Amino acid sequence: MKVVQLKIENFRGIESAELKFDGHALLVGSNNVGKSTICEALDLLLGPDRLNRFPPIEEYDFYNGRYLQPAQVEGEDPTPVKIRVEALLTDLSAEVLKRCAKHLEFWHIAEKRLLTEGEVKAATPGISIPCLRLETVGEYDPAEDEFNAETFYIHSPDAIEGEKETVRRDIKRLFGFLYLRALRTGSRALSLERGSLLDVLLRLQKVRTGLWEQTISRLKGLDIENDAAELEPVLTAIEERLSSYVPASKAGRKTKLYVSQLTREHLRKTMAFFLAMRDDQEAVPFQQAGTGTLNTLVLALLSFIAELKPDSVIFAMEEPEITVQPHTQRRIADYLLTHTKQAFVTSHSPYVIERFTPENTFLLARAGSGKLEAMCVADATGLKENDYKRYSRRGLSECMLGKGVIIVEGSTEYHALPVLARCLEGEDSALNPLDLAGVSIFDAESDSQIPKFAKFFQALGLKTFGFYDVKQRDATEKAKFAAVLDVNEEHKYKGFEQMLAAEVPVTRLRAFLQDLLDSGVDAAHYKIPTTLPTDDAAIKKLIVNVLSSTKGAGWSARLLEQCQSSERPTTAVEFLKKIYTYFPLPVVTPATGASAQTP
User: Fold this and answer.
1) pLDDT, tens digit, for every residue of 102-160?
2) What pLDDT, on the 0 to 100 scale, is given for residue 599?
3) What are the b/e assignments for 430-447, b being 16+ CB within 10 Å?
4) Of 145, 167, 189, which closes a domain?
């Protein structure tokens, strides 16, 4: 079973969204853009237990907390605002096809659309497939002062006109939707509370049959007082004092200690899963295990459930990278991609992002204050899948999540420009720090690759800034750079090292070389004479050779850290200043009114 369309209205931070998927979906984007809200919306619609809690929704599940629309005419009642979550499901299991037969519609595979009423008779296997549309509607009921939500079949031919049939919980269980929240699932995943992963697993395995009756019977037979004789006089004294106020007709012992309240609900909360991971360790409650181990245990449960229902399980997982080491992140991603029908994953981790193809990666962004849009990364032209996978962990994934990217052609610039930016920001409070503004730096490894990556980032909606060496280029080549770069900086030097040698004062270059010698660097290896030359030209030539031979060491960045304000290379400084104009500091409106503080 797969979700191919998802529509969301007035739910949490999303006023409206219409998203299309084709299989697995990695959801990436900035914080608070709506990644988790998509997973929560899927849970509200497909999760079998979400709507059974009371209340199923609350005030802040509505967009901006608005669950009532003010009356347009004075004296009239306000109108309830509705939450709507709609999904179109394909690849339905045989059991769903059978039990939901009258609600089925047809989906055109190639054109990715729902067949209209007149086209259904012409539906052909291989061209169209059965599909199921569901909708969850939530609203506030002023009469009862309650929040309600219910899931319906959108195609309800047997319902009264204007109404829709309700989707029962036993049908929702057939969908096999499982939601692993990054920070919330672990605390109850291995408990027996309703809807927990262990509870779902026991239900699927039919292990719960007779569990509670047998457990309650055994607990009733447990004589706690017999193992603690010192309790006897205490309980007797309590009974004697109780009889002075409340006459008791029961003969013999009137008080009893049990380990729980002997109800199913209380046992669900008190029963605990214990775990031992080492030979020298006794079993402890699962919450006491390491966080990484706990999350891995949760994955183990999820995989168990997926294998029990291989044709229907849909996973939604938030940020698997939280407290989980890189190799486990990769294993989680690989498992979801190969063993589940469909997985929705939110992540900022390059170890997760690199496992998904561009066709399965969606960059979320706000088109307006509350409208959410998703761009498939594969639609960002100019980058082959091999390049995408190769560079994903080298900064590509970080840049995709930002607002702008500085693209350079080598590691010297990659290390040096961030240092120069921090120096400028430290001296001028009017500058918005580039990292906070969402500007990353990306090493394209050669100038010829800059247009390719710039085109990719530009298609994702990022501002692109290129900084590269001068080179003989014809008009066609120059046009490629200009077309995809918001700031197209081809500086006049043949290398960044030459720029530093030409624009940083010789006194600073000499001091830097002397500092290297004093630090104990292998002077012979880097061909630095133990006594520095007095000729300025020789110092400049030496600095170019030294910096060129140590690109990975970041010595250019170290030189810039030592420069005073007046000593920094003007060409690079002016380039960064152009970028700052794209990202000014946010305007902070001072507080007004009675709460405002005056000096």
Assistant:
1) 999 999 998 999 998 888 776 788 889 999 999 999 999 999 999 999 999 999 999 99
2) 40
3) ebbebeebbbbbbbbbeb
4) 167
Considering the domain boundaries, does residue 527 fall inside one?
A: yes
What length is written for the chain? 599
Q: Residue 147 is part of which domain span? A: 2-21+50-167
- Domain end marker among 137, 167, 197: 167
Which pairing describes strands 83-90 and 2-11: parallel, antiparallel, or unpaired?
antiparallel
Output the six-digit token pair for 232. Answer: 């006897």
CA angle, 89 then 93 then 97, to 5°: 80
Tokens matching residue 510: 């000499």
Amino acid identity at 394: R
Q: Which residue has the tokens 């992140």?
A: 329
DSSP 154-167: S--TTSPTT--PBP
The reply to whether 418 falls in a domain is yes
Beta pairing class for 361-366 and 79-80: unpaired
Element containing residue 136 per DSSP (H, E): strand 128-141
Instruction: Report pTM.
Output: 0.78
Domain assignment present for residue 65? The answer is yes
Number of C-beta neighbours around residue 424 at 10 A: 19
What is the spatial distance between Cα 94 and Cα 97, in angstroms, rounded to a whole number?
5
Residue 559: closest CA among 578, 574, 573, 546: 546
529 alpha-carbon distance from chain centroid = 53
Q: How many domains, the chain? A: 2
Domain assignment present for residue 544? The answer is: yes
Q: What is the identity of the amino acid at 224? A: I
The half-sphere exposure of 333 on its side-chain side, counting CA atoms within 13 A, is 28
| Helices marked H in 209-284 | 211-220, 224-227, 231-243, 264-270
- CA distance linking residue 460 with residue 362, whole number of Å: 10
